[in-house]
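Researcher: Structure for this, please.
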Amino acid sequence: RLWWVVNSTHATIAMEGNTLGYVSIGFGRSSLMTDADTITGWVSNSGAVTLLDEWSPDYNQPVRDASQDAHVLSGSQASGFTRIQFERAIDTGDSKDMVFTDADIVIIYALGTYDGSGSS
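Model: Predicted structure, token format:
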């Protein structure tokens, strides 16, 4: 599931998946992973939330952006679901981040059965 609220400067986004591993969403102009702006996160067994701002140049694992522009607001795991809420500027100034406009944006997603590695 995905929820969002957008104001004139920022988007607040919550993503939830039926997994105790990672959840990931991507924003692009097509349904393909290529050139997608991706956000991947997970909640560790201790409750620590990790969130990575990434970019997908191809069909392999996305690479971590030099500029981490997504910021965790909350994260939890319960009843087999992982939920992470984060905030990000509509226009981060990062060439690897999608600028949120009135134009159509395709959303892609991924779920994993394991937590991420902390880097990509």
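Researcher: Any notable elements?
Model: The first strand starts at residue 2 and ends at 6. The chain has no helices and nine strands.
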